[in-house]
Specification:
Length: 160
């Protein structure tokens, strides 16, 4: 068994969605390589960070990313394997890239309860808490808005 720790820059942009790991972003890998009967078992922890935009309010976000994976590199032989030992070496780049890309969030958010954008003004709802709309979005609901405004002043005891 051998353990190695190293940090390398991402060779290219990893990810195609709203967030990705930028080219040159440091990728720290802690890997343990164990000799087993079928080949070499690689277990790794990967630490890096991704950057992009929030899927709800479109603000820039940068978040850390931690990924674990385990894969068997088979000795060359008759059976075909996804990954093989080549000249007593294993190439981790493909595994690290796949693990990182698959763990990137599909719809990243800046905070778990991000309210998003106001559909009318386009402003961030998290920043625009003081202003309320003076008329309803849909005129068919105008009667209900009047009903709630007049009955809000009455207390439950006076109604009944």
């Amino acid at each position: 068994m051998r353990e190695h720790s190293f940090e390398v820059p991402a060779p290219g942009r990893w990810g195609e969605g709203l967030v990705s790991v930028a080219q040159g972003e440091p990728v720290a890998v802690d890997v343990r390589l164990e000799s087993v009967h079928e080949g070499i078992l690689a277990s790794a922890d990967v630490d890096t960070q991704y950057a992009g935009v929030c899927s709800r309010c479109l603000t820039d976000i940068v978040e850390p990313l931690q990924v674990e994976f385990q894969e068997l590199f088979a000795y060359p032989g008759d059976e075909e394997a996804d990954f093989e030992v080549q000249d007593d070496h294993v190439d981790l780049e493909t595994l690290v890239r796949e693990a990182v890309v698959l763990s990137l969030p599909f719809q990243p958010v800046c905070q778990p309860d991000c309210p998003g954008l106001d559909p009318v003004t386009g402003e961030r709802l998290a920043e625009n808490t003081g202003s309320q709309q003076s008329e309803p979005l849909d005129p068919r609901w105008a009667a209900l808005q009047d009903f709630t405004m007049t009955n809000d002043d009455e207390s439950p005891r006076s109604r009944g």
